[in-house]
Design brief:
Elements: H1 5-15, H2 21-31, H3 36-41, H4 49-63, H5 68-72, E1 74-77, E2 80-83, H6 95-103, E3 111-115, H7 121-132, E4 139-144, H8 147-159, E5 164-168, E6 178-183, H9 198-203, H10 217-225, E7 230-239, H11 245-255, E8 259-265, E9 271-278
């Protein structure tokens, strides 16, 4: 096996065209503790025997189609290292925009639910960033439908020393009332499954990805339940698929006429986020 990062890259990508260069760079760089810029500066450095063995193990997993975040056991989200493993959704950078929107609307003494928490990435980012803003006296909750996700979220809450109460729940059934609910729910249409990245299909949990035939199964349940689980003038922040805005507008207008609803585009200019505030 070649012993410089550059040579390893060239050989691996030549022999394995299915491996994405970005995934390979991410795994090699993170194993060595390099930032992206440091990684570029060290491409011609020789790896020692232990580093070469680790690189070889990781490349074998990439060949098998294992997601790079699962190989490393973590992903980055809002600047925080989030533990992830198979059976738990890998946090997406796009969701950071949802967190930013929520951060601008949360005050002291707020009771917050991260609904469908997965790895707990959203709650970790919220809690850490709110502390930086000196917003205090928060009651933090996280729920999910799977035990795998709840266990992994609890690991992340422990890692960051965040006091979060976790609950197992299908959407909001069995939960109490909150001031803010934030969620990145399953919203991919089943008809889009064949268009999904192979790594995603092979590795990530279907229950966290797919939202039924039109992607809206979760939202239909949510709008029926949300009034029973929000305090007066409570808010929700949710992500959705960029092709689903029109249907969601109709759904919210019909089911939540007493809510002030606002949609926002992501940085790519696509509609991806919605904020609702109960006018009562």
């Amino acid at each position: 096996m070649p012993n410089t990062l550059n040579a390893i890259k060239e050989t691996t990508l030549k022999d394995n065209p299915d491996i994405r260069e970005g995934d390979l760079d991410f795994v090699l760089g993170e194993r060595l503790g390099y930032t992206p810029s440091e990684y570029q500066l060290h491409l011609n450095d020789e790896l020692n025997e232990e580093q070469l063995k680790q690189a070889n193990k990781d490349i074998k997993k990439l060949r098998r189609g294992v997601s790079p975040q699962y190989i490393l056991g973590f992903s980055w989200f809002y600047g925080y290292k989030i533990l992830v493993k198979r059976g738990v959704l890998i946090p997406r950078f796009e969701t950071e925009e949802l967190v930013k929107w929520a951060l601008d609307n949360i005050q002291d003494q707020t009771k917050i639910l991260d609904l469908g928490t997965g790895s707990g990435a959203i709650m970790v980012a919220l809690a850490q960033e709110l502390a930086k803003k000196d917003i205090n006296n928060l009651q933090l909750y996280a729920s999910d439908i799977t035990d795998n996700a709840l266990r992994e979220s609890e690991e992340n809450f422990l890692k960051y020393d965040i006091d979060v109460i976790t609950r197992k729940a299908n959407v909001l059934i069995g939960l109490e009332k909150f001031d803010v609910i934030i969620s990145n729910p399953p919203y991919i249409k089943l008809s889009e499954k064949d268009l999904m990245d192979e790594n995603v299909k092979k590795n990530e949990p279907e229950e966290a990805l797919y939202g039924g035939a039109d992607g809206l199964d979760f939202y239909r349940k949510f709008v029926k339940q949300v009034r029973e689980h929000l305090n007066s003038y409570g808010q929700f922040f949710m992500e959705f698929g960029f092709s689903e805005k029109e249907q969601l507008e109709e759904l919210f207008a019909k089911e939540l006429p007493d809510f002030e609803i606002e949609f926002r585009n992501d940085l790519a200019g696509k509609p991806r986020m919605v904020h609702g505030r109960w006018q009562k």
